[in-house]
Each structure stands twice: as C-alpha cells, then as structure tokens.
Specification:
Layout lengths: L12 H49 L2 H49 L7
Helix pairs in contact: 1-2
Length: 119
C-alpha cells in the first residue's frame, strides 16, 4: 500500500505544503533562467550595435568587400537577437502563468480553510 499524505490531516495541508514547495522551486528555476536570458539578450543587443558600427565604418571607408561581409554578419546578429528575444518573452509569459497558478492555489486553499483571501 502506498502512503496517503492526506491521511491524518483534515484539509490535506501536507499536500498543499508540498505542492507549494514544488511550485516555488519551479518558479525559482524559471527566474534563474530568465536572468540568464536577460543577460544574453543584453549581450545580443550589444553585438548588433557593434556589428552596425563596424558596418558604418566600412561604408565610410568605402571598403566594398568588407561592407558585404559585415552586412551579412549584421543580419545574422539581428536574427540571433530575435531568437533570444522570443525565448525571453516566452519564458517571461511562463513565469507569469506559474506565478498566477501558485496564487490561485493559495487563494483556493485559503477559501477552503474559511479565509476570504483578502486578509
């Protein structure tokens, strides 16, 4: 027989506590990922800016071959930046969804315990 975490508690508070711990840990992981992506996004912006500056310099000097190469590199940098930005936005949305799920679960638990949730 498996153990039932709800046995011995009238409202399953052990289960709620365990669920909260797991949810909080997941939210912490998502925030850490978000911080890494934020730094990556910032660096990708810097790379795009650097590529743009190098291209402008090559154009000023009339270096046609280098201009073609740098235009291609700038376009690649912009594409990568777009990928990083998309990932960052997706993760930010997921963090907000999980945060709302945690709050909703707490409010439901409080309501079941007879609290209004406004206290």
């Amino acid at each position: 027989m498996g153990s039932d975490l709800r046995s011995g508690t009238a409202d399953g508070s052990a289960v709620h506590t365990a669920e909260f711990i797991v949810s909080s840990a997941r939210l912490t992981e998502l925030h850490e990922c978000s911080a890494v992506l934020r730094r990556t996004r910032t660096r990708a912006e810097e790379i795009v800016d650097e590529a743009r500056a190098l291209l402008a310099e090559a154009e000023r000097h009339g270096d046609g071959e280098r201009v073609l190469l740098l235009r291609d590199q700038l376009e690649q940098a912009r594409e990568r930046y777009g990928q990083v930005l998309s990932a960052y936005l997706l993760l930010s949305r997921r963090i907000n969804e999980e945060r709302q799920e945690i709050l909703r679960a707490h409010m439901d638990r409080d309501r079941l315990q007879g609290l209004s949730g406004v206290a």
